[in-house]
Structures are given as structure tokens and as C-alpha cells.
Write the C-alpha cells for this entry.
Amino acid sequence: MKLLFLGPPGAGKGTQAAIVSERYGIPQISTGAILREAMKAASSVGLRAKSYVDQGLLVPDGVMIELVRGRISQPDCDRGFILDGFPRTVEQARALEEICELDAILNLEIEDDAIVRRLSGRRVCEGCGATYHTSRLAGRASCEQCGGALTLRGDDSPETVLNRLAVYHEQTAPLVRYYESTGRMTTLDGSLSLEEGMRQISAALERLERAG
Ligand SMILES: [Zn+2]
């Protein structure tokens, strides 16, 4: 089961990918982790990647693909994997298809204002880092666990969230169109609760298993 989750920041794809990973026993592969591991292992492709990272440059697609190829050929990927953060562009998606064909692309769709409500309602404890949502705080302004002050992170302010979403839509819209054209993309409702969202994903994956 080779999967890719697409969805804007705040759609909850990280959480859902983690649950799918555990339920199906397939690793969640993030490009950040692959990069760190390869640089630490000092493989030849890892060192090439490191030379870009050290200069503060983006790692070129060719190097990223090499790294992904190495990672997905490891034994823990025998039953499949979930990609996280790669591909980000149509060029990368095409290059990826040449080394492995994804079985399903799960595209979480959610309105921008729903994400703004979700993220701008988030409050983080300055003391212990616990997160809350204003809809469940009932006006309380301090942390339940340590009594610390609850604040809105700059990243979660409505203007910043709208900016991040604009960047996401601009970069990802072509990728969504590309995967739609492969017939392997399933669009899911990203506005559901975690439980409802997981039911929806499980149903999509069961259909996939039956078809495969
Ligand atoms: Zn706290």
C-alpha cells in the first residue's frame, strides 16, 4: 500500500497519516527525516544532499528522488509506506512515478475559512506546550495541567494562516490536477472530526485493497 496524503496545513493529514501508519504497519516517510538520516549515514547521496543543505540551498529533485528511492527500498517498506512532504511539484511527482507507482493519493479538501477557524482558535500553553482549542476552553485563560498562560502562536494568526494557505494552493493545485488525471486520487472531506475522518479514510483504503 503505497500512499500519499495531500492537504493544506491544518487539514489534519499528519495525525491521520500517523494512525494509518500504525494500523497498517507501514512507515510514514517524511522527507525531513530521510534527509537527516542520509546526512548522518554519510552515504554518497547523503553527502551530496548535505552540500546543498549546508549552503542553505534547496536539495535538487534528482538528489531527493535518489534519497526516496533508497528509503523505500528498505525492508520496512515491503508492505508499503506513506509519503509525507514529497512530492511537492508535478516535476517531482513525475520523477517519483518512474521509480514507483503510488497506489492511492488521499487528498483532504477543506475550505480555507474552516482551517482559519481551526488554527486561529488554537491556544498553546507557554509553560508546558499543551494545546487547546478556544471552542473547548469555555473562557478559561490558563493551562489545565500547569496553570501557564495560553497564547495564540504567530503562525496561527488568521493573516498568517491565509498566507500559508495561499502558498499551499498555488504550489499544490497543479499537483492535485496531475494526480486527478491518474485516476488514483480520492478526495476526502478534511473538515470532519478525527474519528469521522478516519472512518472515511479506512473505507477508501478498504476499497483500494479489494480492487488490488
Ligand atoms: Zn501548561
About this structure: The chain has a mean pLDDT of 91. DSSP finds nine helices and eight strands in the chain.
